[in-house]
Design a protein that fits this description.
CATH architecture of the largest domain: Alpha-Beta Barrel
Low-confidence stretches: none
CATH topology of the largest domain: TIM Barrel
Mean pLDDT: 96
Shape: globular
Largest sheet: 9 strands, mixed
Bound molecules: zinc ion
Radius of gyration: 21 Å
Number of domains: 2
Oligomer: single chain
Number of helices: 15
Structural class: alpha/beta
CATH superfamily of the largest domain: Metal-dependent hydrolases
């Protein structure tokens, strides 16, 4: 039984252990304890040994489009993304998702909740060793596109994904957003997800443009609908209320973003049982605002996770940056020096994500019987020395590049610059040479 030792062991949900050990037996954790005297299998020295990070909102297939869409308002940004998407084939999407998987593994991410349109991430997760949920995206706002056809195509994709599903990678659906999925399509998708036991991920209350559409029938989405002859009946309620009315917020739903929310919206979402994914860097980059994290944290029973979103709106899949920026954005905008705490951010990035995905009995903490999904973060470098307290060091000082070891289900998938499951040089080379923004040849 391999025993890993480090200066800090962070079980999450229990106090940190200074000079601790984790004993791994097969794919699970056998013991978490203070270090014993004598040799161990791997002494990580001045490092934090902790549960692998849960990135609760990604689009891995967009990773190689990093930097393609900069400095655009939300509506223009999403239109630009749609244009770029038309230029790549399935092979390219696979390379792009593999690049995302490399970045996740090297940055200590062991579980992802990934949205896919091209449908390639199922096989990429299966091959990479990453754990996760793959949500097949569905679009259909135009009433001239029959619901039956959209649902039929979705079912074919879900059946194909299920052939690659496993104990480690499961399938879900993502009705993309309220401005890309019309009510009749929600009426078909939500019962289908319920019957099939498919978890749901949906972008909710992200931009002001979305709020203007549902509350006033105005703004860039409304203008685009009118120009294209797309029927839209303005519900005159908030985006969160609208999606609750569509039946899209359930115990199986990840409500991603939730920036534009009133206290009534938060209560409504909490009642639905849906979990929230906080994506602070993406929200800041697109000028969407600062999500009401303190109100979420104060809402009993509300499950909250942390996500990077895609490289198109971030531009990194670095959960350390996400924890740091997510904390600083709150403290800065609310002029509050003590909330949220570093420890709360680490919990969102581990146990919070596990809870949001219904995986808290398997991952998110270090405890006997849990999956051996764990990472070692180096604390011996100039920018982290001295690491006197582990939570603050992780959130305020550490970065993805400080991860030395990533283990998933007892298997070492990344260690000191080397990936064991993916051909990193080949993927990096293909990503470097195979992707150019539209209009640049
Ligand atoms: Zn997204």
């Amino acid at each position: 039984m391999p025993t890993l030792r480090a200066r800090w062991v962070l079980p999450i949900g229990r106090p940190a252990i200074e000079n601790g050990e984790v004993v791994v037996a097969g794919h699970v954790i056998a013991e978490v304890r203070p270090a014993r005297s004598g040799p161990c299998d791997l002494d990580l020295g001045d490092a934090v040994l902790m549960p692998g990070l849960v990135n609760a909102h990604t689009h891995l297939e967009y990773t190689a489009l990093r930097g393609f869409t900069e400095d655009l308002p939300f509506f223009e940004w999403i239109r630009s993304v749609v244009q770029h998407k038309t230029h790549f084939d399935e092979k390219a999407w696979r390379v792009s998702a593999q690049l995302g998987a490399l970045e996740c593994l090297a940055g200590g991410i062991t579980t992802v909740a990934d949205n896919t349109d091209a449908g390639v991430t199922m096989e990429v997760l299966a091959a990479s060793g990453l754990r996760g949920v793959v949500y097949q995206e569905v679009f259909g706002i135009d009433q001239r596109e029959p619901v039956d056809g959209i649902l039929g195509a979705l079912k074919t994709k879900i059946d194909a994904h299920r052939r690659l599903a496993s104990d480690r990678v499961v399938v879900g659906i993502s009705p993309h957003a309220l401005y890309t999925v019309r009510p009749e399509l929600f009426d078909a998708l939500i019962p289908y997800a319920r019957e099939q036991g498919l978890p749901i991920s949906i972008h909710v209350a992200e931009s002001e443009a979305e709020t203007m559409l549902t509350e006033e029938g105005a703004g860039p989405f409304a203008d685009m609908f009118r120009a294209r002859g797309i029927q839209w009946t303005t519900p005159e309620v908030s985006p969160t209320q609208y999606l609750a009315d569509q039946g899209a917020l359930t115990r199986m739903t990840l409500a991603v973003h939730c920036v534009q929310q009133s206290s009534g919206d938060i209560a409504n979402l909490a009642r639905s049982g849906a979990a929230i994914v906080y994506c602070p860097k993406s929200n800041a980059k697109l000028g969407s605002g600062v999500a009401p994290l303190p109100q979420w944290l104060a809402t009993p029973g509300l499950r909250i996770a942390l996500g990077t979103d895609s490289a198109l709106s971030n531009n990194t899949l670095d959960m350390f940056e996400e924890m740091r920026f997510g904390l600083l954005a709150q403290r800065s905008s609310r002029k509050h020096a003590t909330a949220p705490t570093a420890r709360q951010m680490v919990e969102l990035a581990t146990l919070g994500g596990a809870r949001a995905l219904g995986l808290e009995h398997r991952v998110g903490t270090l405890a006997p019987g849990r999956e051996a999904d764990l990472i070692a973060v180096d604390m011996s470098r100039a920018h982290t020395t001295p690491a006197t307290e582990p939570y603050g060091a992780l959130v305020f000082a550490a970065r993805a590049g400080d991860v030395r070891l990533t283990m998933i289900g007892g298997r070492v998938v990344y260690r000191d610059g080397h990936w064991s499951t993916l051909d990193a040089p080949g993927i990096l080379d293909a990503a470097r040479t195979g992707f150019k923004p539209a209009g640049q040849g």
